[in-house]
Amino acid sequence: MYKLSLTKKFFYKNIILFPLTFLALLPISAEEKRVLKVGTVDNYLPCSDLVDGNFEGLSVDMWRAIAEKNKIHYDLSIIPTFGQAVDDAASGKYDLIASCHKITADRLKKATYAVPYTEGTLGFLSRKEQNNLFIVDLFSDSIVLNSILILTAVSLTGSILLYKVEKGHLEVKDLSEQKRTTIMNKFANFVVGEYGELTKEKKGMWIVIFVAFSRILIISTLVGSSASLIFKRDAPKDANALNDESIRNIVYTGVTVNKATKMDDWLQNKVNQSDTIDSSKVKILRATGGEPELVSALKSGKVNHILSDIAVLNRILANIENPDDYVISVKNPNVTPQAFIFGANLEDNYRKSINITISEFIRSGKSRELGILWNKLIN
Predict the structure, then answer these.
(1) CATH topology of 25-120+337-374 equal to that of 237-331?
(2) Pairing of β 112-113 and β 54-56
(3) Is the pLDDT of residue 241 over 70?
(4) Which CATH superfamily is 25-120+337-374 part of?
(5) More confident site: 7 or 160
(6) Topology of domain 237-331, per CATH?
(7) What is the mean pLDDT of residues 291-310?
(8) Is the pLDDT score of 27 beyond 90?
(9) What's the whole-number mean pLDDT along residues 30-47?
(10) Would you say residue 194 has pLDDT above 90?
């Protein structure tokens, strides 16, 4: 068997093994020196944005808190769209995407998400149209109309019954002007609630009691239905209930949406699924400049609608000139969880630490506090 000479043994032991042992004992490992490459989507407050060279937003603040707690070193840079961010994470170009990416099936096929820390839903901010007069909508409501008709019928019936009770006191027998006046007086008394003079006769008292309770019940229904109609006029429509006619009206009158977002995909799917929409008349402006571009298109009259996250629309509505000219016309009642995206090359120990910290922040309320802060629509 081959044996090392003394000189070779000395060289192997002191020149090669000693430095390797020394490096293994160093307090700072290569992993601790690792600097994560983190991306965030631009122009999407309250989620994430780059303003005057400063990174801002709910997602950015959330990531900063996670990195500080875990002593993670990172470089933060901008990605223009959510779609590109997903692709960059999937290819390993970034170690983590710190934005509020909606968790969807098609994205999960490409990349892995962290624990969700917030949620969101889509809606439309629209230029107000001239509504019908409230009285027109009021009489168009079946409950309101039926309540008015029933109230009229009950009051009139009670008036006629009371007239018959007092019929013996009248000198004429046919339905003369005096009789009509007597009936109409009683009817007016029922409508306004003046029952005192109508209870002189014993039979009349029971008629008054019956009509009075009926009147209270019907008027309560009438008032409640009218109030409900007022709220219904101002409330956003359910995005899930939009029919072909509603979608057609939106895309024909013009809508702008951030390019390569799930809202963009959602709208295009609605258009594709409709057999009544003429593609040559569709007007969809896909913005790459974020909120400023969306607002500019709406204010200039290029479009009548903005499609985006409700949090973004609330912010726009709070800061736009003449906010009374606009309204959130449609809202999706179904919320979607949102989270960071892990890059393909991010090590498992980082993923675990990040998820544990997010879970702790959710439990302690820190993530909720950040959400409240950024949904106050800061200028």
Answers:
(1) yes
(2) unpaired
(3) yes
(4) Periplasmic binding protein-like II (3.40.190.10)
(5) 160
(6) D-Maltodextrin-Binding Protein; domain 2 (3.40.190)
(7) 94
(8) no
(9) 85
(10) no
Lowest mean pLDDT among 136-140, 290-294, 342-346: 136-140
Q: Where are the domains of the chain?
A: 25-120+337-374, 134-234, 237-331
Residues 6 or more apart from 87 whose CB is under 8 A from it? 110
